[in-house]
Automatic annotation (TrEMBL):
Organism ancestry: Bacteria, Bacillati, Actinomycetota, Actinomycetes, Pseudonocardiales
Ranges that cross the membrane: none
Gene3D superfamilies named in the record: 3.40.190.290, Winged helix-like DNA-binding domain superfamily/Winged helix DNA-binding domain (1.10.10.10)
Protein's UniProt keywords contain Transcription regulation: yes
Protein name: LysR family transcriptional regulator
PROSITE patterns to which the protein is assigned, alphabetical: HTH_LYSR
UniProt organism field: Amycolatopsis samaneae
Length: 297
């Protein structure tokens, strides 16, 4: 199946919102015949009837309503991607300089920056993506105005505020012996099993180590140390070994059974995602606005 283009998805969403192909075409500045052809091509590519066409307008079929919901998510995520990419390019000359750890940068921060940009189109926001330890260093050194970290422990020299919650999960590929295990793992079993892990200094690695220590099981036994969640995820899918990773980073793989979550008894793998800034300093201006927005969202 050939993937649909974004313009066709955007057109379909406008048909749903405006009630006709003609109005959707006008909103996008294209001719109605071109819009009709583009929607027909979209239906052929997906192998689905998306629209009921009549002299009174065009409405979505049941399949069309489902596809429009997915299309909106794709368009929203593309908008976040473009906003995040712009922020990465702008980091050196930005009016607001932000650093974020991997999970926050992938799942939260671009949406927050996008909302700031919608309210202040001329505001120049720069984003640097590094692990939690490096984020803290950049904030302490004054190289960024605001940071976002996953680290669970104290952060000397920094004030913090919770902006989101996350939960780590143990995952294995479908063929792994743990995939059909009926009893939860114990803390001791998890600590004794070599795992695919993030590098030292990452918030995910620190969270796992801290959780196992609280359970009296010691620290993680590394099998592989990798520098990103995607690298960890792909290593587990390929059969390298189990991993403990953010549920956000494996939601799609768990949904389609490429990865299977494994229950663990007596280990708290929840964590707070936090904003950080220099201790004793009151945030003002764009940094204060971004923090307030992140807390609200």
């Amino acid at each position: 199946m050939t993937a649909p283009d974004l313009d066709s998805l955007r057109l379909l969403v406008f048909v749903d919102e405006l009630g006709s192909i003609g109005q959707a075409a006008a909103a996008l500045g294209i001719a109605q015949p071109s819009a009709t052809k583009r929607l027909s091509t979209l239906e052929r590519r997906l192998g689905l009837a998306l629209l009921n066409r009549s002299h009174r307008g065009s409405g979505l079929t049941p399949d069309g309503r489902v596809v429009v919901g997915w299309a909106r998510r794709v368009l929203d995520e593309m908008s976040e991607l473009l906003t995040g990419a712009e922020a990465l390019r702008a980091q050196r000359e930005a009016e607001l300089r932000v650093a974020a750890s991997m999970t926050l940068a992938e799942h939260f921060v671009p949406a927050w920056i996008g909302e700031v940009k919608r309210a202040h189109p001329d505001r120049y926001v720069g984003l640097e993506v590094v692990n939690s330890e490096h984020v803290a260093e950049l904030v302490v050194q004054g190289k960024v105005d605001l940071g976002f970290v996953e680290s669970p422990g104290p952060l000397p020299g920094l004030a913090t505020r919770k902006v989101a919650a996350d939960h780590l999960v143990v995952v294995v590929p479908d063929g792994h012996r743990w995939a059909r295990r009926r009893r939860p793992l114990t803390a001791a079993e998890l600590a004794a099993t070599p795992l695919v892990v993030r590098e030292r200094g990452s918030g995910t690695r620190e969270t796992v180590d801290a959780a196992l220590r609280r359970a009296g099981a010691g620290a993680v036994t590394p099998l592989l140390e990798l520098g990103s969640a995607s690298a960890v995820r792909n290593a587990v899918i390929s059969g390298a070994g189990p991993a403990v990773i953010s549920a956000l980073d494996v939601a799609r793989e768990v949904a389609d059974r490429r990865l299977v979550p494994v229950a663990v008894d007596g280990v708290d793998l929840g964590r707070a995602l936090r904003a950080v800034w220099p201790a004793g300093r009151r945030l003002t201006g764009p940094a204060a606005e971004l923090l307030a927005l992140a807390i609200r969202r």
